[in-house]
Amino acid sequence: MTRFHFTRWLRFVVFAAGLMILLAGCARQSIYDAHKDHDHDHAWDYVGDVNATPADAVEGADFMEAPFVLMETVSADYNSTTGTAQMAIHDHGTTVTLRLSNLLPNTDYISHVHEETCSTGGGAYYRFDPEGDGMPPNAIHIGFTSDDNGTGFMTAENAKQVDESAHSVIVHTTAEVSLLCADMQ
Ligand SMILES: [Cu+2]
Hints:
This protein has one helix at residues 3-35; strands at 62-67, 69-70, 82-90, 93-101, 108-114, 141-145, 152-158, 168-173, 178-183. By secondary structure, the chain is of the alpha+beta class. The N and C termini lie far apart (70 Å). Copper (II) ion (CU) binds next to strand 5 and strand 8.
């Protein structure tokens, strides 16, 4: 290969790699765009907005609060983890707020509203339309990252009101190990 051809080939490879990264980013973005509330700016809104009004500050709501308890599948890393889940059902839908302490620091977690109680492991995701999928906005997913001290805080909003079959909130690792559960109603 001549130097000229090698340079052109190298430029093509760099260009192609850049294009693939860009396209992967767009595909990822579009999944979230499809679900997000367009009143907000960024792609992760559908799994929470740290600046949203927390459940315990929503006026005139049907308010519930429950402590998180450790689930059977939890590792010893979480022996001292504590926290609460709050749910506010109100005229504009449902607000869920999580507050946790002594998680692993700087770690991503995912949480969902589930349709069964903690004693039965929570069962499936709660779905507003039982015939629909388990993704927002038809389900409530709450994603967050713990801070340097292992504190987690996030609020997720949904425009619909959950019914009485929204029984629990479960926090998982990103590998879907169930860690903590709160019985809401
Ligand atoms: Cu879950």
